[in-house]
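User: These chains co-purify. Model them together.
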Amino acid sequence: MSFTSIISLALGAILIENFILVKFLGICPFLGVSKSQETAVGMGLAVTFVMGVASLVCWIIEAALLVPLGLEFARTVVYILVISSLVQFIEMFLRKAMPGLYLSLGIYLPLITTNCAVLGVALLNQQNGYNLLESVIYGITGGLGFLVAIFIFSGIRERLELTADTPKAFEGFPIALVSAGLLSLAFMGFSGLKII
Amino acid sequence: MKKIFKNGLLIQNPVLVQLLGLCSTMAITTTLFNGLGMGVSVTVILTCSNIVISLLRKIIPNKIRIACFVVVIAGFVTIVEMLLKAFLPALNDSLGVFIPLIVVNCIILGRAEAFASKNGVLRSAADGAAQGIGYTLVLAAMCVIRELLGSGTFGGGIIGDGVRIIPQQFPAMMMILPFGGFITLGCLIALVQWRTKK
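Assistant: Joint model of the two components:
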C-alpha cells in the first residue's frame, strides 16, 4: 500500500465523500449537537476516536470470527453489539484514566452508539474489502470529515441564531437543514478532486 | 386505537415532528421504488420489534434494556435483509448499506423505549404500524418531489424507468444530489411548522 493511495483514501473520506454531507451518515448528532461550536468539536473528536477504534475491532472480528465460522449473515447483530460494548468500555476507561477528557466528552459518548456513521464505517470497510490498515485510516479520516463538517456547520448555526432574519415557518430546524444543504452543495465542489 | 394512528401519521409524525430517522429519509429518497421499499422494510421491522419488546417488557432488566432492544431490532433487520437479498435483489442493491443501518434508525429504538416498553402487545403493534406508515408517507412525498424536480419522472423503478413528466432538458440534477435531500426535507418541516403555528 503506497503513500499516495493512503492520501487519496484520506482525502476521499474527508472532502470528496464526506460522511455527513455526501453520504448522509450521522445526521442525527450533526443536527442535534451543533448548536454551539465547543460541544460540536467535542462530539466530533469523540466520533473520530470511536470510528477509528470500531473500524479496527470490527475488522479483526470479521477476519478472526465471522469468516472462519461462516457467520457472515449475523454481521449486523455482531457489529452493533461490538460497537455498543466498545463505547461502554471506552467510557469506563476514560473515566478512570483521563477524567479531564471524560468530563468534556462524557455526555456525547453514549449517544455515539446510535450514530449511524460508526456502524456505517464498519459496514463500508467490509463492503469495500479494505485491509486492516486501510480500514483504520478510513475510519479515522471519516471521523475527521465528520469533525470538519460539524465544526463549519456549528459556526453557521451560531450566526443563524444571533443575526439571521428567518421567516417564521423556517425558524429552528428547517433553516438549519437548508443551510446544511448549501454546505453540502459547497462540498460537491470537491468531487472533481483526484490524486493520481 | 384511533388516537395511536392519528399520532403516528400526523401529530407525532416520526420524521416531520419528532425529527427522528433523518439519515435514511434524505439518503435514499431519489426514486419512489427506493422510498417505498425502505418505508415498508422499516414498518415491518418496527411493528415486529414493538411486539417482541412489549412481550418481553416485564422480563428485561431495566439496566440493560437498551442493549436488549438493540439485539431484538438487529435480529429483525437481519431477517429483512436476507429476505430482500433473496426476493428483491434490485432494491437491496440500490439501498445498499442503509438496510443494515436500520438498526441504528432512531425511530425504532425511540418507539421501543418510549412506547413498547410501557404498553401492551396490541397497542404496541398498532403504534409500530402507525409510526411506520407515517415514516413511509414522508419518504414517499420526498421521493415524488425529488424525482419530479431532479429527473422529471414519476414512479421510477416501479413503472420501468418512470413516467416522464418534465422534458429531458429541464430537470435540476441537484435535486437528486445530497443538496436536494436537505432542501426538500427543510421545506417539508417548514410547511408543517407553518400549519401548526397558524
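Chain A has nine helices and no strands.
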